[in-house]
Amino acid sequence: MTRRRVLISGASIAGPALAYWLHRYGYETTVVERAPALRTGGQNVDVRGAGREVTRRMGIEDDIRRATTGEVGTRFIGPSGRVIAEFPAGTTDSGGATAELEVLRGDLAALLVAQTTADTEYRYGDRITAIHDDEGADAVRVEFEHAPSEHFDLVVAADGIGSSTRRLVFGTEPTIRSLGLETTYATIPRTAADDDWWRWYSAPGGRSVTLRPDAHGTIRAAMSFLTDRTREQAGAELRDVDAQRARLRERFADAGWEAQRVLDGFDVADDLYSESIGQVRAPRWTSGRVALVGDAAYCASPISGMGTSLAITGAYVLAGELAAHVDHRDAFRGYERIMRPYVDQAQQLPPGAPRVANPKSRAGVALFGLAVRAGSSPLVGKVAGRLFTPPADRIDLPDYAHLER
Question: Rounded to two decimals, what is the model's pTM?
């Protein structure tokens, strides 16, 4: 029997996770990645709830634990530079602003790719340029920027919030809801004064500076600010690294705390990355023989704390449903039925986010400080803990083990 061939666009989290599960069900998988090599950079991601259960079923939970950043919790820093509140890392599958399993995106991607290189073909430095999915045809013809065209039984877009593969099939049908926040990330040197807490500092003007430890002896820094620009308006400037550096220097010159240190680090960082934070709201995740998974389908934004768990869980469910049904259309319906309620919950952000954590006025910064200080007290700590805990467990996760080959 000929194995069904699946082409996956994107080699970050959702793509390799999907390849892993499809191989266990007897599929032949190919992953095409636009970058010339595996992108090992990136910031912290959480593995929570259902996503963590999927990693257990993959047998990689302990590998992820060994790769964790060592972050011990979250501290909020006041205008004087002193800690005004702290929240220790969660001790369950889902709890805490800092999850029990915190890992760098690149480290998790490398781990997932390592699990699949023996049975999945990875093609770096190429991308899909056209998809011919004719109704009634038994395969999809795919054109690439560099490689010759090929036929596949199915194509899955797992190439992020700005998925170019998604646009080829769905056009502008999925909407990207802007959350009014722009964030720039990079790796900067660690100093003797740094610790293993995630430190969050809010400055007037809707600005924040955060520092997080990693497992490589450096610090992952981020600068965020509120904006009225849409993703489309911000796009070109965010891709211009020098323009963004200049913009950040102008915006954060008087921010205080560690802002100057981060700006200096950003000037020489080789992994600087900026994005306009948003969510993907798609009325459907499949069309013909093409499906969406992970951020390409239902990005919930970094604010949700659910992006990685959605990607891992979605990959597991999509692969399982494909294995459970002869007709891919039935599988796609099952995928949507199981995942849609989970995604809807994940995209419900805490009240006021992200503006509440990025106050515009000095009075607002002071009020935010009082709120987090109160939230860290035993009296209201349980309520605050629920606010910091995303709905990572709220899915009846199917068991597809009987379908493995």
Answer: 0.93
